[in-house]
Amino acid sequence: MATKAIAIVAGVGPGTGAAxxxxxxxxxxxxxxxxxxxxxxxxxxxxxxxxGKAIGISTDVSSEESVKAAFTKINQEYGNAPVAAAIFNxxxxxxxxxxxxxxxxxxxxxxxxxxxxxxxxxxxxxxGLLKHAEDxxxxxxxxxxxxxxxxSVKANAQMSGFASAKYGMRALSQSIAREFAPKGVHVAHxxxxxxxxxxxxxxxxxxxxxxxxxxADDIAESYWNLHLQSKRCFTNEIDxxxxxxxx
Amino acid sequence: MATKAIAIVAGVGPGTGAAxxxxxxxxxxxxxxxxxxxxxxxxxxxxxxxxGKAIGISTDVSSEESVKAAFTKINQEYGNAPVAAAIFNxxxxxxxxxxxxxxxxxxxxxxxxxxxxxxxxxxxxxxGLLKHAEDxxxxxxxxxxxxxxxxSVKANAQMSGFASAKYGMRALSQSIAREFAPKGVHVAHxxxxxxxxxxxxxxxxxxxxxxxxxxADDIAESYWNLHLQSKRCFTNEIDxxxxxxxx
Amino acid sequence: MATKAIAIVAGVGPGTGAAxxxxxxxxxxxxxxxxxxxxxxxxxxxxxxxxGKAIGISTDVSSEESVKAAFTKINQEYGNAPVAAAIFNxxxxxxxxxxxxxxxxxxxxxxxxxxxxxxxxxxxxxxGLLKHAEDxxxxxxxxxxxxxxxxSVKANAQMSGFASAKYGMRALSQSIAREFAPKGVHVAHxxxxxxxxxxxxxxxxxxxxxxxxxxADDIAESYWNLHLQSKRCFTNEIDxxxxxxxx
Amino acid sequence: MATKAIAIVAGVGPGTGAAxxxxxxxxxxxxxxxxxxxxxxxxxxxxxxxxGKAIGISTDVSSEESVKAAFTKINQEYGNAPVAAAIFNxxxxxxxxxxxxxxxxxxxxxxxxxxxxxxxxxxxxxxGLLKHAEDxxxxxxxxxxxxxxxxSVKANAQMSGFASAKYGMRALSQSIAREFAPKGVHVAHxxxxxxxxxxxxxxxxxxxxxxxxxxADDIAESYWNLHLQSKRCFTNEIDxxxxxxxx
Lengths: 247, 247, 247, 247
Fold this sequence. Notes:
Four copies of one chain form a homotetramer. Chain A has one domain: NAD(P)-binding Rossmann-like Domain (Rossmann fold, 3-Layer(aba) Sandwich), CATH 3.40.50.720. Chain A is 40% helix and 16% strand. Chain A has a seven-stranded parallel β-sheet with strand order 3-2-1-4-5-6-7, sandwiched between helices. In chain A, strand 4, helix 4 and strand 5 form a beta-alpha-beta unit. In chain A, helix 4 runs parallel beside helix 5. Chain A is globular, with a radius of gyration of 17 Å.
């Protein structure tokens, strides 16, 4: 089954990334990329145990070498398989600081992962996505999805590094969408506008009902539905917020 | 079955409206509104024949009286049923004219249907949508969807009437989304950016492959997927275009 | 001096309109339009006393007949003069109400003035603006400016009528800009994002410094600077807010 | 006159930068920054000869060290003078390439100058701008202006590096505007949407009239008018295009 299309998820943590990997892993052999193996090991086991197929690769998406090494492994494992879906969910270190107290390194941290990393990941996955686009048996158009945030469209005070990275990733997504849609690749950008319900945000909005946070599984469901869209109906951007979000 | 939730589609023609009615009609008893009965009669028969339940009502959405009369009939038929989904797909007369040659009536034609009509339709359906939001057995959050166009976000020359109506409808959608999301109603606006493949556009883009046009069924599928989103994941805006669209 | 270019300001009240009329009245014979003569009478006297030339005409911009009557008077007074600047500053009744409590008339009130009125005003002034564009002695390109608001780009809850009108006016402005720029007419839209310091808002933000509100004279200054822009540098949109505004 | 406020222009070339330096140099002692001294030497002489005061410093804005060295010189020359205006006009190497042929270095080239450079420049100038904001004798609020492009709001195919940098700079501008406006600093972003008429673009649009290009002097004029705005009227974004531009 070397030619069966695979899905690749970059930025697998305990939230959106894991949910997306689980969802796409139910349909495709799936590759989980994260810097820290702790972030994917359990999930890889879970998917494999449940009849799916998953591998995890420790990868720094901001490093071209690291990503190249990861794709060498992917190709060894899956034999240059076409890519049905590639989801970029990695995010740089979040820094909120008065501008005059922010170091150049702090400022750039977001860019190295969210923009440069997204570029490197796109270059690595697009050949496989194009291969899938040419496969007349492909069930759904190959899909490349980028996870954005409120800061993708609104740059608040003290968020210059984070917001400029998220704006930049959105531009990258739009540029790739315009270049590759005519070749059959569906590129989408998701503006996640709200707090995602993950272990790290457990204490946030505690006094509010569950509908004050975004469900990670619900994001995965929405990404999957983007993947199901036909070549005659590509959505290039969605926003996502919980019903109780102010916007 | 008086309390079973229903779906209401305004602006049923041979394209998006029919596809949406068919899709939602597979899950809910459905009401089809159009000025001209010719636009829904066959489809009503089709849905009823296939085991669904549909009624059509000749309605001018730009007239409060006409919409009130329609809802009196709906309530007679379905006994004040909660509304699971309401889709506003009506559009005013499209006028492309040099500004100085456009009559005030031409200019306002779009607004009367797309904005005032959307407002009247929203007022008529929101009580039923709210009722569904309070129903703990409801499968999916009640959904109110507005069909927009390229002109919802770009106002080209000679399109002042059409574009100002579409911008206005988008504002209405956003305002309602903000007011009713906390009450559990999911409001979404779709920017349909491209030519929809319907009988009327048969001769357009004839020399191009099928992927140059948007599939009406594909739009319906995307609307349905919006409806499936949970209260922890509301998408308030999507864009839709075929893979060969320039944007 | 029948052919000297004039300026026309619609929506003259005690705030922006008056300041704009004063500013443009220092350079051009000026026409002040408002429904209520009380809104322009004093100012007309002031401008005429200070060596300028001004006339006021009671006009309902939402009525084609009323605007036509006004332009008959303007032409009688100024002999079909070219129009150097036309500023649309009128705004419909502001209504903030829960959607389900808003009447169709309330909802439409904004549109009739801000969109239909802006359209009628544009049709009435564009021939004079085009005439000025063809005048090789014209000092500055003819300028048509629309006064928008925060609600031109953000539709908050309970503001559906106001916001859909402001969105619609913005679309109108963009469409006219695209059609008439190649003919030399400079069209601009101003997003006034904050409270303007006028008698009516005296009690608002009282505990805050003067920089919490927008100066009406400052808006007029900015509009004048838009007017000074050359044909090689048209700004089609500006935002304006006081330094203490949150956005 | 050590405390007289100065203006600083980064990215002085034969176009916008030079025009801006000339314009602000007529009112303030001015500092011209460019990597290549050829880009400012003549202009420095011109301004000094015409009764102004100018110095040029060879600076790489993408390097913190280089910018620090430049500001040491500025402080030596002008004695820690307050900064009345700082204009960031530098732009990274423009690369238009299919995504799969673009190197990571090509992709990042824009960011290093347009985003990281803009951040470093902002950090270097904001202390002087804040000093000017506190000076009650200051004629105009201190102004920090960023020069953007069409690609600041539209990311075309094959422009991923350039556009993601321009989007990122726009985010930076908005974030700084929000943080520093309450402290009296006016931050503005200009979307230059069209070809600027400079020696390098002489052969472009040759068959078209002068109004097909943007005048560099006209941009400078618009920037100056932004600088003149009061604390009760800050414009944070303008677009600029020539009258014959399609948009």
